[in-house]
Specification:
alpha+beta, four-stranded mixed sheet, 441 residues, 4 domains, elongated, CBS-domain, 15% strand, five-stranded antiparallel sheet
């Protein structure tokens, strides 16, 4: 009577000398696979300090390390080649021995478990997990053990590793030609989702958003710029320099739209004892002009390349809109940078939790930062306005009288001080919070 199909029927065959040779070879191959996997982890787990300590010893290990550091790409390719060849050999030998020594009969599933699952488990556990855990916990001592074998393997696998690297290089070139579709907004959102414990997250986001900010958004408008007439005599110039307190001053001829250059106050120091007829105009340095729509990330690169700290911002007609400095750009990244002159130039005062008093000349970009709003919060409203006062002029079409109140999205605006030419102070009240704001004010 034949046994039911669900009963395991397994026959074992006797061992011969050939089987014994393959059985003896298996643990050797498993050890070699573990050695290769562990050597990769040992090399790339060493810290810069560990590498420096090995180099200082000036021995065989340091020589091996220097060779491997010069051929890191070859090392990765070599590890990949040896690991795959050894693991394939282990699988083939294990399968051959299984078929030679065991007859599973009709028990196909059980045979698959033994040949596939069990062999894979042994490979992963003994050839990957255990060696990598051991070498990662003590990378320096592990590297000293595998340094020489790694150098030998690189020499043996050089033809194959070179072919592999050439193929990879060609693929990388083709892939690199494809442009990324990730926008700046996507990158900014990605930073928002990073770990909250990252202390520089706000700075990272500010750096990303530099590409969305134009020079006109953060420049000092012409009405607030201290500039000197090129016709001033030396005595009048010195008085002006002392009064304004700045180290770099634009110089104009006839009017501010005709900037002739920048005066560095430090250049005047050797000539302080000269009389009023001294021709200080010879000390003027060339000005760097940028358009209003110049992105400040590009401008920062130009400042670095040209070793300058100030640029004159011009409009589409060539007229001077204002100036922008290196400090203005850095403040977009790290926040407000205060110095001894800034207290008298404070552009807002917080009266209570929801009420602020702003100078009309504050830029919309600074207003958004203070109120925790997105940079594009007023894009649908501001037209060509760059300041809070300019935004109100866009809305009203005229200079509003003192006391006039204006509703704008979640804010109530009240004109506190104005004259015939400009709006000086605005009281801003936060009436409600909506989705346009990033955080509570």
């Amino acid at each position: 009577m034949e046994p039911p199909s669900y009963v395991l029927s397994i026959a074992f065959f006797p061992l011969n000398s050939e089987h014994l040779i393959w059985l003896a070879l298996l643990p050797i191959l498993i050890f070699m696979s573990a050695l290769v996997s562990g050597s990769e982890t040992a090399f790339f787990s060493m810290s810069p300090q560990d590498i420096d300590n090995i180099k200082k010893n000036k021995n065989k290990t340091s020589d091996y390390l220097n060779r491997l550091l010069e051929k890191q790409d070859h090392l990765l390719a070599t590890v990949l080649i040896f690991n795959n060849f050894i693991n394939i050999a282990i699988i083939l030998i294990s399968t051959y021995l299984t078929h030679s020594l065991i007859d599973f009969g009709d028990n196909v599933v059980f045979g698959f478990v033994i040949e596939g699952v069990l062999i894979t488990f042994v490979l992963v556990l003994f050839c990957e997990v255990i060696p990598k855990l051991l070498t990662a916990s003590r990378p320096v001592s592990s590297f000293k053990f595998v340094a020489k074998p790694l150098v030998i393997m690189i020499k043996i696998a050089k033809p194959l590793s070179y072919a592999l690297m050439r193929t990879t290089s060609l693929l990388n070139r083709k892939i690199s030609k494809r442009k990324s579709n990730m926008s700046i907004d996507d990158l900014s959102d990605a930073i928002d989702f990073t770990d909250k414990s990252i202390g520089d997250k706000k700075i990272l986001k500010s750096i990303v958003e530099l590409t969305n900010i134009d020079a006109k958004d953060i420049m000092r408008p012409r009405i607030d710029v201290y500039a000197v007439d090129i016709e001033f005599d030396f005595k009048k110039l010195l008085t002006f320099v002392v009064d304004c307190g700045y180290s770099r001053i634009p110089v104009y001829e006839e009017n501010f739209d005709n900037i002739k250059g920048i005066l560095f106050v430090k250049d005047l120091l050797p000539y302080l004892n000269r009389d009023e007829s001294f021709e200080w105009q010879s000390l003027i340095r060339e000005a760097y002009f940028v358009p209003e729509n110049k992105k400040i990330n590009d401008l920062l690169k130009k400042f670095q390349q040209k070793s300058i700290h100030m640029a004159v911002v011009v409009d589409e007609y060539g007229g001077t809109s204002g100036i922008i400095t290196l400090e203005d750009i850095l403040e977009e990244i790290v926040g407000e940078i205060s110095d001894e002159n800034d207290e008298s130039q404070k552009l807002f005062t917080k009266l209570n939790t929801n009420t602020y008093l702003f100078e009309g000349k504050i830029s919309l970009n600074d207003f958004c930062k203070i109120m925790n709003l997105d940079n594009d919060y007023f894009d649908e409203t501001n037209g060509d306005a760059e300041t809070l006062a300019g935004l109100i002029l866009e809305i009203c079409g005229e200079i509003p009288a003192d006391g006039r109140e204006i509703e704008l999205k979640q804010f109530g605006l009240k004109i506190e001080s104005s004259d015939a030419k400009r709006i000086k102070e605005i009281k801003v009240t936060v009436k409600s919070q909506n989705n346009d704001s990033k955080n509570d004010s």
